[in-house]
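Hi, here's the filled form for the chain we discussed.

Project: internal
Contact: R.S.
Residues: 371
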Amino acid sequence: MDHRLLLLGLLLSSVVMAATAVGDEEPALIRQVVGDENDLELSAEHHFASFVQRFGKSYKDADEHAYRLSVFKANLRRARRHQLLDPSADHGVTKFSDLTPAEFRRTYLGLRKSRRSFLREIAGSAQDAPVLPTDGLPDDFDWRDHGAVGPVKNQGSCGSCWSFSASGALEGANYLATGKMEVLSEQQMVDCDHECDSSEPDSCDAGCNGGLMTNAFSYLLKSGGLESEKDYPYAGRDGTCKFDKSKIAASVQNFSVVSVDEGQIAANLIKHGPLAIGINAAYMQTYIGGVSCPYICGKHLDHGVLLVGYGSAGFAPIRLKEKPYWIIKNSWGENWGEHGYYKICRGSNVHDKCGVDSMVSTVTAIHTSKE
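And the returned structure, exactly as it came back:
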């Protein structure tokens, strides 16, 4: 079938499904009727047994096991829908396949703001990044090749993605300022950062209950900086603040908001190091690899990640040509995605990029020597 006819069919089906109540399962526009349900039902228990063994899952009793199997079956159907709507990526069983979409959002996401709220909040604390020249930018660039990206981390069952995005951006900025890769502490921000937006009292950074990267940068400006991971290790839960100013390993000089322009995002990435960004994670629960370039994706931002580079050509056979893409470092461990990384398509001709270019901030660092 011609891919354009497939797209039209998907869009029509999505419009119909959007008019129905879908509860808490997933965004209405991503629901899609699929076939081969009988085959799926027959193979689900085998896949579930492999999933349990592979990821070391255990359940408290037979009832919990049966419930998680039912969730797993539903997620197999979701993965099939996602594969139809995002054919240039691979979707299937991941370590999150026994979680409902609501459980997944509550536990592994944690970006608290819309783009509009983000702009209101930073108006008084961050500057717009100056316009940079975009002539002569390389076709491909990856900060992992230049030493500015630390190891992939795992936020665990804590909605602290925002702190990993902020720490990763500061790790890169500190590397550019000092020539040293210092792995920094997310737990300090989880425990100590309660920075708020004065216009929205319920929008404070709240540890495992979510936050915003520009809030975190504002906190770090006020507190003096961030300790290293080894001095303030990650616990994956909310705790009492134990910040020791004498152990600061990296400090924020300033931070800026980058315009919604992919050329400016690429130029700022190269000049300032990895960038803190927001993204709509609708396809990420089932993502295995490849370049994600969905036909339909919402622009509501619910996950904080780190933009580390871009490529000029990721093979996408369904789209009939290779697609340029962004390289994103996630915080769900190396056993998710492409060894902890996610690729999403870029380019002015791409309609739906899951909001990847709409909430971007850059940070610069000053070196603070430990006493």
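Let me know if anything looks off before we file it.
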